Each structure stands twice: as C-alpha cells, then as structure tokens.
Amino acid sequence: MSSADKNLSVFTTEGLPDISNKKFAIAVAEWNSEVTEKLFEGAYQTLITYGALPANIVRGNVPGSFELTMASQWFAQRADIDAVIALGVVIQGETKHNDYINHAVAQGVTNVSLKYDKPVIFGVLTPNNMEQALDRAGGVHGNKGDEAAITAIKMIGLKGQVANGQL
Ligand SMILES: Nc1c(NC[C@H](O)[C@H](O)[C@H](O)CO)[nH]c(=O)[nH]c1=O
Ligand SMILES: CC(=O)[C@@H](O)COP(=O)(O)O
C-alpha cells in the first residue's frame, strides 16, 4: 500500500507498562539535524507523555547514522538503561553509500539488542529526498520518533511480561 496521505505513526497505546522507573537512552545522528532534531523531540515527548521521567532520559549525539551502532552499544551495555532509541536520517545520494549505511545500522542495532538483551530501536529514516524525510518527522506521515518511543515502551512491557511468566 502506498503511504500517500497516510499517517504512518498511528499505533495503539493500550496496555502500555508503567515506565516511571525505566531509563531510556536516545542516540541522535547530527547528519540532517533539521530532521533528526524533530525525531528526537517526538521520541522525547512521547516518552514523557507515557510516564518516563525527564531525569531518566539521556541523550548522546553521533556524527552520522553509521555511528549509531557504536553509541547504542555504549548505552546498551549500561545495566541501568532499559532501552535505547537510535535516531538518524540517511538520504539517498548519487551512489550506493546510503545503502551501506542503512544495512550496517539495521544489522548493527539488531546485534546490540540481542547481545545486551534489551530493546534497541531502529529509528532511522531511509528516504529518497528531504521532503520524504520531513513528511515522516512531524509532517503528513506522522513522526517516526514518536513511533520509536512507543516501540521501546512496548518492548519493555513485553520483556517484563515474558520474564514474569505472565505470557
Ligand atoms: N550521508 C549521510 C550520512 N553519512 C555519514 C555516515 O553516517 C558516517 O558518519 C560516515 O560514513 C563516517 O563513518 N549519515 C547520515 O546520518 N545521513 C546521511 O544522509
Ligand atoms: C548517504 C551519504 O553518505 C551521502 O553523503 C552519499 O552521497 P553520494 O552517494 O552522493 O556520495
């Protein structure tokens, strides 16, 4: 289905866990910062809206999205951090450079997530142009930063339910 005129950030928020004692790290790429700042704002505000305490949200900037994997690992290996959100925007260039970055980060954050047994959320936009990026960072298609935050919260909730034998 085409994403034309569709808000891609529509998600259910029923049954979200209490996150008032959970700690989140958000890694933000400086490349295309006019977009990544909007993703960060969306993620941060969504965490606050659903109960996270400002003191329990830490942020680290990286130069580009390729570096999100490393920063995610540094955060994930900390025992006090429950989930990591990696935010970036990799815009299609003239060469395949963007593909290498995108695949590396997708695989990288997956590896970190599995290695440290905690959610590491892939909040990286992979648009063809700046318009597509802005559409997904508070524009007509919602804000993927919001979505990344909700995903982190839901995964913390699921992890708790599985660990407690509730499922
Ligand atoms: N072109 C984009 C980049 N490129 C930079 C790389 O992410 C990386 O910093 C460099 O290759 C050094 O390791 N990064 C983005 O986040 N977005 C881009 O559009
Ligand atoms: C995705 C990028 O890193 C970007 O700077 C590469 O652009 P190009 O493919 O035109 O070299």
UniProtKB/TrEMBL annotation:
Pathway(s) the chain acts in: Cofactor biosynthesis; riboflavin biosynthesis; riboflavin from 2-hydroxy-3-oxobutyl phosphate and 5-amino-6-(D-ribitylamino)uracil: step 1/2
UniProt-listed CDD domains: Lumazine_synthase-I
EC number: 2.5.1.78
Residue numbers binding (2S)-2-hydroxy-3-oxobutyl phosphate: E94, T95, R136
Binding of 5-amino-6-(D-ribitylamino)uracil, residues: W31, S65, F66, E67, V89, V90, I91, F122
Presence of keyword Phosphoprotein: no
SUPFAM superfamilies recorded: Lumazine synthase (SSF52121)
Enzyme superclass (EC): transferase
Gene3D superfamilies documented for this protein: Lumazine/riboflavin synthase (3.40.50.960)
Pfam families: DMRL_synthase
Residues forming the catalytic site: H97
Presence of keyword Transferase: yes
Catalysed reactions, semicolon-separated: (2S)-2-hydroxy-3-oxobutyl phosphate + 5-amino-6-(D-ribitylamino)uracil = 6,7-dimethyl-8-(1-D-ribityl)lumazine + phosphate + 2 H2O + H(+)
HAMAP family per UniProt: Lumazine_synth (MF_00178)
Family membership: Belongs to the DMRL synthase family.
Name recorded for this polypeptide: 6,7-dimethyl-8-ribityllumazine synthase
Organism name: Dyadobacter fermentans
Lineage: Bacteria, Pseudomonadati, Bacteroidota, Cytophagia, Cytophagales
